[in-house]
Amino acid sequence: MSTETKKPSYNVNWQQDYAEMVVTSAEAVRSIQPGMRVFLGTGCATPLELVRALVARAGELADIEIVQLLTRGDAPYATSDLASCFPVNSFFISANVRGIIQQGMGDYTPIFLSDIPRLFRSGRLPLDVAMIQVTPPDENGLCSLGVSVDITRSAAENARIVIAQVNPQMPRTLGNASVHVYDLDYMVPVDAPIIEEPAPAYREGTEEIGEFLAGLVEDGSTVQLGIGRVPQAVAKFLRDKKELGIHTEMLTDAIIDLVESGVITGAKKTLDRGKIVASFVMGSQRLYDLVDNNPVFSFNPTEYVNDPHVISRQNKMVAINVGLEVDLTGQVCADSIGHQFYSGIGGQVDFNRGAARSENGKAVIALHSTTGEGKSRIVSTLTHGAGVVTTRGDVHYVVTEHGVAYLHGKSIQERALALISIAHPDYREQLLKDAIGMRYVRAEMQDYSGKITVGPKETRTTMLLDDGAQLTIRPIHPTDELALRELFYALSQKSIYTRFMSRMKWVPRKQVKDFVYIDHRNEVSIVATVPSADGGDIVALGGYYLNPRTNRAEVAFTVHDDYQNRHIGTFLFKQLVTIARRNGIAGFTAEVLDENKAMQAVFNNCGLKTESKLVEGVFHYTMQFD
User: Fold this and answer.
1) What is the SS3 assignment for 159?
2) Active-site position among 197, 208, 249, 401
């Protein structure tokens, strides 16, 4: 897609042509009277000159309710001295109003972002005044809302009075991003740089989360990146992807290189093909220059961008949002720290539900496993007073720097174990004890304390079969117990006999658990799966168990009957050799029935120094790495 930009085009004589509407900021805010409700434009389009003029009238005004989504820059109205004059009612708690709200002198309205325009339109939250920032009008009298369309467009359409800070430095964004000059009441010329939003600083673990998130994004996916350092970190690891699309609330600098390098093309999008769809942008001047008058970018209001139905129509939609805390049942708190409100619901639920209903879509919650103070964010129960934003019924993927847990459709025990596996290692033992105490997890799981973990990501790879089908090769995961049991029960009696050297009509659960709950060093299990959003069906298992006395590990394999004789065992064997060598193991041993010619071929042709002895119908193999 082309990323050429053009200079904003506007009527240079606009102040003369619309002279009757052009006023100073002080003159414009004289229209605001005590008891009015005033909306402020969003993010980096916050009309700071109008805000300053309004606050300058504090001695003349009272009970001016300030309604906003999130704003940037100074918020001089959000002080304890002015709290009664300018009570704040915010749909999302940005840093510049967090203090006044946490002190109880401002208010927070929890609401899905997609519902806010209806709130204005229906009159349930009538707006007296909307103070916004726009570009100068073009020859047709159209002003662009620039870097902030979101709920600002709805506010401007429904407020009785619209005061616009008209700024020639505002990027002219395209799409459904314009208001007509005659829909404004006052125009205040202000030539000033647009607020820039610096990229958030990473903390330890942020890049690891980004890498895990990127692993969930397939070629041709459409991606939403939520607010904060964690969703933005994924962009670095998307550079090798192909034909990605963007449908998101917020654009940041994270997308610039992906656009310019051709990773983001939108060519596979189901809706708005070839377009980058967003509702607001917060970033650097470089980003503002990129979106300025650029037809590749389509800015639309919240009622379109955040509509779960619209989102769901994008195939392979991947929504990435953040949580502050997740309990062992999968409840996600995202707007408060205990009883203290911190941010907001925003578009998390809109995009989570839309992506979950998308064909091959993925709804992802990402968070660091600990707070900056070292407290676990994976908790047995949410902190007292914490609110649930994404319910345990809505949650799908949860990602920390320690791995990925897929929870949708999983039992409470499966969820708890999966979340424990991606918690910080310092907290896993206590979380397991808590889970057992709350009867989330059976008491027998205490025997596996220290082994509820995710294997190293370096183990993950893919295998291409002769027919073009692709398998994912990865470490066993705590949520794989059911899938592994299903693999064993799908085996023919012949396959069961060659694997376990006995006739078995059922597989003891403990035996399955011993494959799943391992330390990933002395005990290793890797699986081959058919790729799917939920982790895929397991079609093969390979693993080893170390004998510490000899520093050799016994190795064994299980392959679904439908996938036998397709070189999967050989591929898994090579992976296990690599893992074992990395772990300092000297070699492998194996026992193979005389009739199991396929497995004998794997070992006989493995390229290692190999010895074998046939004893009573069983070959005993010893394989030395060096």
Assistant:
1) coil
2) 249
